[in-house]
What we know:
Chain A is an all-alpha fold and 335 residues long. Chain A contains twelve helices and no strands. Chain A has a domain of 222 residues: MetI-like (MetI-like fold). The model of chain A has no long low-confidence stretch (mean pLDDT 84). The N terminus of chain B is likely disordered. Chain C has a domain of 258 residues: Dipeptide-binding Protein, domain 3 (Roll), CATH 3.10.105. In chain C, helix 6 packs parallel to helix 7 and helix 14 packs antiparallel against helix 15. The interface between A and B is large, with 73 and 71 residues.
Amino acid sequence: MLTFTIRRLVLAVPTLLFISLVIFLLLQLAPGDPMAQVPLTVPPEVKEKMREALGLGQPLYVQYWKWIVQFFWVEPQVLIDHWFGTSFSTDNLRVISWQTRSPVMDIVIQRIPQTLWVVGTAYVVGILIALPIGIYSAYRQYSWFDQIGTFVAMVGFSVPPFFSGVLVIVIFSVELGWFPSIYDTTLVVDSWESFLQQLRQMVMPVMVLALQITAQISRFMRASMLDNLNQDYVRTARAKGLTERTVVLVHVLRNSMIPVVTVIALGVPSIFGGAIITEQVFKVNGIGQLLIGAIQANDLPMVQTLTFIFAVLIVVFNLIADVLYGVLDPRIRYD
Amino acid sequence: MTDKERFVPDEGLTPASTAIPAAGELEEFTRPPRSQWLNVWDQFKHHKGAMAGGILFLVIVLTVFVGPWLWPLDATTIDIRARNQGPSLAHPFGTDQLGRDTFARMMAGGRTSVSVGIAAMLLALGLGSLIGVLAGFFRRLDGPLMRLTDLFLALPLLPLLLVMMLLFREPLNAAFGPEQGIFILIVTAIGVTSWMPTARIVRGDVLALKEREFVLAARSIGTTNTKLIARHILPNVLSPIMVSATLGIATAIITESALSFLGLGFPPDYPTWGRLLFDATDYLQQYPERVFWPGMAISLTVLSVNYLGDGLRDALDPRIRGR
Amino acid sequence: MNFKAILLGTIATAVLAPAAFAEGGRGRDGEVKIIYWQAPSILNPYLSGGTKDIDASALVIEPLARYDEKGNLVAYLAEDIPTLANGGVSEDLKSITWKLKKGLKWSDGSPVTSEDVKFTAEYCMNPEGGCASLSFFDGVEKVEALDDLTVKVTFNQPKPNPYGPFVGGQSPIIQKKQFENCTGAKAPECTEANFNPVGTGPFMVKDFRPNDVIQYVANPNYRDPDKPAFASVTFKGGGDATAAARAVMETGEFDHAWNLQLAPDVIAKMEQGGKGQVQVGFGPLVERLEMNLTDPSPDLPEGERSTRKHPHPFLSDMAVRKALSMAIDRELLVEIGYGKAGKVTCDLVPSPDNYAAKNDYCLKQDIAGANALLDEAGYKDTNGDGIRETKDGKPLKILYQTSTNAVRQDFQALIKEWWRQIGVETELRNINASVFFGGDPGSPDTFQKFYADVEMYANTFNGTDPQQYLAAYRCGNEPKPESQWQGENINRYCDPEYDKLIDELARTGDIKKRGEIAIRMNNMLTKDSYTIVPLVHRGRVSAIASSLGGYKMNVWDSEMWNIADWYRIK
């Protein structure tokens, strides 16, 4: 398994480089103009000058090479400088956003806490609710609990966040006045009071997101448990006199985890990617909001960098899932 | 599982599902063999959830496809004097801000949403299952196919759709006409960008399955790979595929609405459920019924497909047949 | 509090407010919270040009003069407004001399001098800088600092309207000391300066998070010791217009929300929340239909579509354009789409008063008249499918495109229905705004390329003078392949008469005469040729909390123009 992991990690480098090239070409090919949001009152000649100042006129390979150098060479230096107080990176141009004319990575780092707080919490909450629901629904298939669980999960998944978000805002902010409708990203949690405030402003976005995540994972958990509950080894385990608890929660659960691990691993990168619509609705200015804003403004360096970080996470977490398969089911071997 | 534990006789812990058929059904064993699909259908028929889901689904499909022929009002007819009306006899679901009949719009929207949802889901499912099974089953294909999956997972959706629109809208319009062309484009766009989770899930299950004893047994008696996949692997990965299918329909309907309000989807006078829901969200407080109808229609469609899927899965599982 | 009490309270504060306003010192009213649904990305308007960025920077940096809510110039950093009468503008209209107020200080305590003004011009006019306000410095030959407080701007030709440079929110004065090393290609590298400019305005930046939120505190060196009344400002960005309106009028979390293009009944319902109201101001913004005078047919080879080589098969006929305009009920469009935030208009330039033609030819919908006009012009439905054909058998089918936006899609549906009634079939298309308004020559969907028969959007001009706006319709200024599809003459309009008027307007200094010429030009484009079919004169809509005093809606400049005068009604 170790050799497999190392081989895959080594292979990840060319994979990621290829992905970055595809993303780059895709973004270049996509119609769009960083000047789209500049008012029509600015004459076309001026817009042309502004484009030139962004370096748009350069040939493609130059632009791509510049990004590669900035991302893989300059940005790590900046990070090292930041940690150790050295000065490797002076005078080297970093990846600069076209919207803000400032280093992309600085903004990303500014945004990560919001996203982790809200999307991360929602993900953890969602998994913690989904697993027990999925297990119990399968164990008592077609019971009332299962039926209600199915209904709620399906409705929860069918209702898109652009609607459910507004619905909870109207109920809890406008009518009841319990929670703020706009997330305060400047809040510093340094006291009990501010911690409570942070909790209050997180409740609604976490609720909306967790509903979606719970719906999805509990369905996969239930289906997979159902497949396993009727297997012969379950009968054997019961026949051996294992307690029902051990049979279900150890033997069946472990064998049912493969699809669930896949789904969870697919979801983890999206924690970083943020939840675009939910972040928009609640004004949690996290990574998702940054990405959609950058796409709308055609801020290619920003989109390229964010998507690439996202790609790295995808590759890493899919690798982790593959390793976990081997742990869950030792018969799976890759070599 | 530990070997140390002594064998303990069955103490009645076994749930009913694994019980041996009662003696009274002995006749069943003496009857001539029946086709497998007949058995499946028998099982399906007796599955209450599946039948309810199936009927509901049929009703929805009939309403949205046949309904517009019977209903006198057209989805695009504007009657400006009758705008923003509540439910009435003439307009059972009320009217919108331009006085268009919401019931007619729901039916017209449903036709688009249901077709897009199902077509895109089938495409994604087909692609996902194919790639998942191939990658899980053939070790040599695993690397390239999974890296391809990683690539697709990483591609930013919106620019990808913009590029597809740019490259294929005009040729498809020319070949199939504006409505068919955009339908094909949207179904392909959604299908091509949503097969990856299914592929990963199916591959994970296949990886575990192909090391199981019955696969080894089948292989040892010389079953070909194609047969092996069709008879032994596919039926056993059916349940995650079914879950993907139900979730996939909901995702496709909602993604379509996202495309439409970004200006990448159907023309603006073409209602769809997702778009009706999105447009109504602004009026949530004034006219709550306007969000209710499309929201409920999407949920009901997804629920019915879910129960259908459940029934199908149960019916195809020989271990629980006859329960 | 019941309604009566609120009413009494409002009257009481209205009476007491001026008194309360005069006394009390800087920072007495705590915090004011502003929400923009587009988040500011940078606080240097020279590098952005976006309204959100101009408004966010208006709290910090100021121009020499601004337009007030009526469109009159008011001196900000300048002592007074230079005119021909007071000798500030030279007789030959080729130079203007500004005098700075005495004793002005930057927020870091250093004095504001004419060198800063001169540097601002150099910064923007640097050819490598990509300055968004470059057109404000059009025709500037040189900027000289005559002494510490006097600046002279010389133009290379007579400028009837010399109030371009250093006037209005797009052209504020930046500090030389701070931006000295940031000119030209180095402009984007000065993140610190671009995010935290030193200014003369009532506030200074405490914390700037790009595309998210800005926190400001009162500037201790602001020239009026009693202002601003607020000690700090939170300027939040992001989300959508509905949510922003809700945060002001329903939940009361914010005090000011900007640019709320929402359906009138949505706004009316929110106003019932009682925590705030909507304010509307009318500038020259007009929502219009643009008629394509050239043929956009996809059958033409690429590079010839929508170019002057091929006139449009039927839209080049004025009768068709006129009929299309006559079929539209503009009153209804306003009622459904804009409510009190819109007015019916038949003009390209609806304001300011001096330049407005105030036409009324289009106010009444006349379907029968439109039908008769088309019959008379020879467009008959020969094959009985309900669609008229041209004399050589081409059906009157129109592709009608616009950007994605709920109100615009409602307009499309309504207009399509009206045009159906006069025997014209319409195909609708909506396009993502960032593609439609972008100038990507590779995309077929930009408004410049105009691969459609009719398109709808809104446009306006800066300040109070429409000269440049009207000059856009010059022959040859149309987007075409040779110019990478850049150009402002969207309709491909070409009339030598009109070009003569453009030149005449550029030479005329007398304000009354200028008005007459502009009105003639306006009529040539609208009433006399139906090249541009105006629909709605759109207002700028903002929501204001009931407790916010001193706010004055201003459409001629940044909305934040008088934030120093804002206060809390107690």
